[in-house]
Amino acid sequence: MEILVCIKRVPDTSENEIEVNRDGTDIEREDLVYSVNEWDNYAVEEAIQIRDKVGGSVTVVTVGDEEGEEVVRREMAMGADHGILLSDEAFTGSDGKGTAAVLKAEVEKGNYDLILTGAQADDGSGQVGGMLAAMLDRPYASLVNLIEVVDEKTIKVGREIAGGNQEMNEIDLPCVLSIQTGINEPRYVGIRGIRKVASLDIPVHTAKDLGIGADAVGASAARTKRIDYFVPESGEGAEILEGSTDEIIDKLIELLKAKGGIK
Amino acid sequence: MAQQIFAYILHKDGTADDTALELITAAGALNPDASITAIVAGSGAELDTVCRNMAPRFDEVWKIDGEALAYVNAEVLRPALVRILPNESIILIPHEHFGMDLAPGLSVKLDAAYLPDVIGLEGIENGKLKAVREEFLGQVSTRVLCDVSNGVVITVRPGSFKADENRTKDTQIVDKSAEALAGGVPGNARRYLEVVAAEVGDVDIAKSDVLVSVGRGIEDQDNLEIVFDLAKAMGADVSCSRPIVDAKWLEKSRQVGTSGQTVKPKVYLALGISGAFQHLGGIKGAPFIVAVNKNPKAPIFQAADVGIVDDILDFIPELTDRINEIKG
After folding, report:
1. Which of A29, A178, B53, B253 could hold A129 in an S-S bridge, CB 3.0 to 4.6 Å?
2. Is cis: bond before B86, omega within 30 of 0?
């Protein structure tokens, strides 16, 4: 099975506190640690496991600047066979549709049976997979937490729905799926793994290579634009207990007792 | 003519979802004078019940009735909606698992703009809509400007708008089934099979009065012991947030959130939990919430009654020891 996984390089929320910059035009990007979007890691792991079971290849692709190469390489160290970087000034400022349009052009250069994305990334939109599927006229399922290959033309997928329940579907290939965290346990990638793939070639495809007009993507084509960033008004918020740890614990135990929290 | 805004109604077992009346408020935030059309898809008597119950609330109800929609499959519904929605439509859809399945592709097929997971709407001016979203799991908010001159698909976060309970209208139910499903049922490239119910664990956290809930801040599976020790001292049960289940450190039946269990305890201790809306969405009944987190900006402190800024790995054992001392 030929599998393409679309990944994104994002600020790592487990390594950073995300803050708004001074004039509110962006988050504070200085000193941010970036990594591959958490959901995408599960998607790549799933792709590798499917390939190891039924054969084929795994390609990872990202839309971004030259730094995007770092996350592509990391996922190759996990076990992806090929990596592609889609990079062009013209892509800068794309909204979800712009990004999906760039990916669509790359998909059409290949012959992929299965295309995976993470269910969402840093901006919480969860949009690119569904848009890409619609642009390609292929079936789509979101929030996938189980994949079983039935035969060359069909897979069975579980979707995470409310209350911990799982919705089972059968889908014809080729299709697009967005992958939910928890579907597998992504393997660890050590420094040695990264070194092994350090010299592998990662081709860069530009707008021209992909046959994309500059006005079709990027900031000028984007219909949604961020105006500003802010930290929401705290509303009432929590009463923060202060003092020494002993004082805080005394106060907390008093409150817990009053509310029936200690039996 | 008043601007028409569409609202997609989720329903189950003949009852409309809570989001149905929230979408009325959201539509009002877009345009207080809008005419709001509910779209309800499904099949048979249950669908009719939902349509009847929605009719007094909306200016119009569009019914799409088809056997293929007995369990609504986004791949089947999407082309049906494309057939019946006028050009430049504004359509509101709840941002949950079904909306996430349906909406991004719908915006492509309608050639409309897409605004996902909106928590606030500030109206439309000169074809531009201003909306509020969150990024980075709620750590920051952002205002976005969206060109809606060719229509827009908006997914609205459940619970972010108050339900409009007051609207009463004398409304017709319009049967759009024939038009929507003309030419047979599309989308059979994805076939719904069944819903597999969540496994029941050894503890039913939905019934617990006191929950000690643990998140990513616990850092390591071995550290869970201190959480169980605290729960034991308090006479509480242990629940958790999603990352703990994703890491397979605790069973899925202990996960609190929209994709896990809905709990309604009296007291909820959130330990090392950042407080993403999916997690908070699983906590009902307004419990007394205590949050302990080393990040003072964690969104959980917005939802909590009492907060403690500390590393849970230091704080939990001390709290446990003190409770045990007191209890003797």
Report:
1. A178
2. no
